[in-house]
Design brief:
The chain is mostly helical. The chain contains 26 helices and eight strands. Strands 2-3-4-1-5-6-7-8 form an eight-stranded mixed beta sheet, with helices on both faces. β2 and β3 form a beta hairpin. α10 runs antiparallel to α12 and α14 packs across α15. About 50% of the residues are buried.
């Protein structure tokens, strides 16, 4: 992985500026600002690049040697994999929610357990969606109506077959889907076999553990548990349908075994010593594998029983028991979200000096994951029902999907609509205050603007106003989480009142037709959003610019190791952080100083890397961050891993050779320790007062004499071509050269 002796190494005593880009960067040539580069270490997925010495100037400001770490191919893949990630996004978000847990041991353990149980509920929900299509709509409803199978050769061959046979054959569809996800989830986080985990784990803040531990043993156990829960859920659907025709002793025993498997899955994910600890303990692996094998064997037994045991099936309506199982699962999901909210609010009230919304990131992301999973599942079943209904006369109309799906679409759309309306109101109400603050900033930055600069001045002010709206997103996200939880809870109405329109008309006097029209609009909007995501996944590999926007979510979410759901995509930081640490160690041991430069999300990677460096290496390292979301986003969303103490620890490790560049026009990045201007005193004391440096954006309002347009408003764009960036590089490089090797 590291470069050999003859592969473009800096001479001893030099300073290497190692640049780490943000999400979805264009490439090493763009990061280095040189047209021709060559790889000096790494592989196709991630590697270190330098300008070609024979065709480009490889020196930066103050004569530093330029080098870039390109990692954006680690979380990416083929177009097919991107499409699969779109449908596995709820699992990916739930993994992020685990890392938003509180910092104390008790609260963190409870949040982790609740998120893992939520993960089991999402797996069961996906299985129920597949069962709703294959078992309920096709095997039970459509194949019982001759008009539904007419002119459909792919279904007509099953018409007239025994109900047990139809259920068993169609149960292969959700079973195959589970097997496919099982196979796809076995992709490791480290993308090449030559990679070795760090030889030793350095003690330090929790963020330093990223990349120091191998999650594959944990994921192997969780994977087995989720596979067991998935097949047990499928067994429950089949057995509930059979139990509605009568409960002979065999069915009772099979139901008891199915419940025992689900209970065992629940216990295993809630008890950390059974899953997390002793990663090389074969006994824990054996328990998980035995549970998985038991569930798969149980599915075979259930299928055999339905095939060969005689039964008199009473047709009509939906698949017996399916609607109740789905409804209670959604209600359980809402209860889990309520428990998560209670734990987080209790923790925030105990910790002084923090606003309550700042500690609810886990609730927000978990609710978003559940909302997306419900929306995906409901739309899959609803659109399949529409397809099967097409061409069927009203007299032969099939009953359609379970009523819980209609309530679920109503709840999700209501949560989204209320959040958007409140967001619009908040934007309008807060605009005056944000305009006032932006006006003060612009007036101070450009005290005497010329008359022709008035339009440009308005653009700058508008950019600052928009950037400040980011700080209001946290309470809006909390509102969405609360509404999504209430939406999941309202699905319990499907047990007593199947029609949301009639129920709401009775309680609120809103016409039922209007309610059902709104639900239909919500369903169409969800379908359009899913279609847009599919098209985004396809066109992401045709347009680099479009790929940048699509890849942002995946890059941010897959930074954190999998810890709650094993079907999510793997974590690229498990390779990137140790790889960066090893490269920096090699350069320092070769006699060089290293100026580690991190842009945007790259600043999070370099922060985690610095925490892993031994003292003799960090003594020869300086840090430059720009457009960094460390304080503005990560400290608010991940309080257990990013905070003031951790950030001060980074500064202390590198002797406070740290500069952070930020702009008021940046909607994502910001200051680290103090938001003071260059001509103002810092709001903190000590060495951290020297870290932050605000950049005026734009540099001027009018075009310079050598240009025809004014300088651009950069916002969150990189700063490598900014004069302040070059000045900061010279300052930090000089401090590295002055430091004693």
């Amino acid at each position: 992985m590291t470069a050999g002796p003859g592969r473009a190494q800096a001479p001893p005593g030099e300073v290497v500026e190692l640049r780490v880009h943000g999400v979805s960067a264009g490439g090493a040539a763009e990061v280095l600002g040189r047209p021709l580069v060559r790889q000096v270490a790494g592989d196709r997925s991630a590697g270190f690049y330098r300008p070609r010495p024979d065709l480009a100037d490889g020196r930066g400001a103050s004569g530093v040697t330029l080098e870039a770490y390109q990692w954006n191919d680690l979380p990416s893949g083929t177009a097919l994999r991107t499409l699969s990630l779109l449908f596995l996004m709820p699992f990916m978000l739930l993994n992020v929610a685990v890392w938003m847990r509180p910092g104390d041991a008790v609260g963190g353990a409870v949040v982790r357990a609740l998120c893992r149980v939520l993960g089991l509920s999402l797996t069961a929900l996906y299985v129920l969606a597949g069962a709703g299509v294959a078992l309920d709509l096709v095997a039970w409803q459509c194949l019982s109506v001759p008009a539904c199978v007419a002119d459909r050769e792919w279904l007509s061959w099953m018409g007239g077959r025994p109900v047990g046979l139809r259920l068993v054959v169609l149960a292969l569809v959700p079973a195959a889907a589970v097997s496919l996800v099982w196979w796809g989830s076995r992709r490791p986080g480290r993308s090449f076999t030559a990679f070795r985990a760090p030889e030793r784990a350095t003690a330090g803040p929790p963020l330093s553990t990223i990349g120091q531990w191998d999650t594959e043993p944990l994921m192997g156990r969780l994977r087995s548990i989720h596979i067991a829960a998935a097949f047990a859920t499928l067994d429950g659907c089949l057995l509930a349908a059979r139990a509605a025709q009568g409960v002979p002793p065999t069915v009772a025993v099979l139901l008891a075994v199915t419940g025992a498997v689900l209970l065992a899955c629940l216990v295993l994910v809630c008890v950390p010593p059974l899953v997390d600890r002793a990663p090389t303990d074969p006994r824990r692996d054996r328990v998980a594998r035995v549970l998985r094998g038991t569930a798969i064997g149980l599915t075979v037994v259930v299928a055999g029983y339905l095939l060969f045991a005689p039964a008199r099936w009473r047709a009509g309506g939906g698949l017996p028991g399916y609607g109740s199982i789905l409804t209670w699962l959604l209600v359980t999901h809402a209860v889990l979200l309520g428990g998560l909210a209670a734990v987080l609010i209790w923790h925030r009230l105990r910790v002084r000096g923090h606003q309550p919304p700042n500690g609810l990131g886990a609730l927000v992301v978990a609710a978003a994951a559940g909302g997306l999973a419900v929306a995906y599942s409901a739309e899959l079943v609803q659109r399949t029902a529409d397809l099967l209904d097409r061409g069927v006369s009203p007299a032969d109309d099939i009953p359609g999907p379970a009523h819980a799906y209609t309530w679920a679409i109503y709840g999700f759309f209501r949560a989204l609509l209320v959040t958007l309306v409140v967001a619009a109101v908040v934007a309008l109400v807060s605009r005056r205050g944000r305009m006032r603050a932006a006006g003060a900033i612009v007036e101070r930055d450009f005290p005497s603007p010329p008359a022709e600069a008035a339009p440009r001045l308005r653009q700058v002010r508008t950019m600052i106003v928009r950037a400040r709206f980011t700080d209001l997103l946290v309470p809006l996200a909390v509102l969405f989480a609360v509404m999504a939880g209430l939406g999941a809870a309202t699905t319990a109405m499907a047990l007593v009142r199947p029609d949301p329109g009639e129920t709401l008309e009775h309680r609120t006097h809103v016409p039922a037709e209007l309610v059902m029209f709104g639900i239909e609009v919500g369903g169409v909007a969800i379908s359009a959003a899913v279609l847009a995501l599919i098209l985004a996944g396809i066109f992401a590999y045709r347009s680099p610019g479009f790929r940048h926007h699509v890849g942002v979510l995946f890059d941010l979410a897959t930074f954190w190791p999998r810890a709650a759901h094993p079907f999510a995509p793997p974590c690229y930081a498990e390779r990137a952080v140790p790889e960066l640490a090893r490269r920096i160690t090699y350069l320092v041991h070769s006699g060089n100083g290293v100026l580690l430069s991190g842009y945007s999300h790259g600043s999070v990677l370099v922060a985690a890397t610095v925490l892993q460096l031994p003292a003799e290496v960090s003594a020869r390292v300086a840090l430059l961050t720009y457009s960094s979301p460390l304080r503005r986003l990560y400290a608010r969303l991940f309080p257990a891993y990013v905070g003031g103490e951790m950030l001060r620890g980074i500064g202390g490790r590198i002797g406070w050779r740290w500069r952070n560049l930020w702009r008021d026009t940046d909607a994502l990045g910001g200051w680290i320790f103090s938001p003071h201007r260059p001509d103002e005193p810092a709001r903190v004391t000590g060495p951290e007062a020297t870290v932050d440096r605000r950049l005026r954006d734009p540099e001027s309002l009018v075009a310079p004499p050598w240009d025809s347009v004014p300088p651009p408003i950069k916002g969150h764009l990189p700063s490598e071509d900014d004069p302040a960036y070059a000045e900061t590089v010279r300052d930090l490089a000089g401090r590295l050269r002055a430091a004693e090797p």
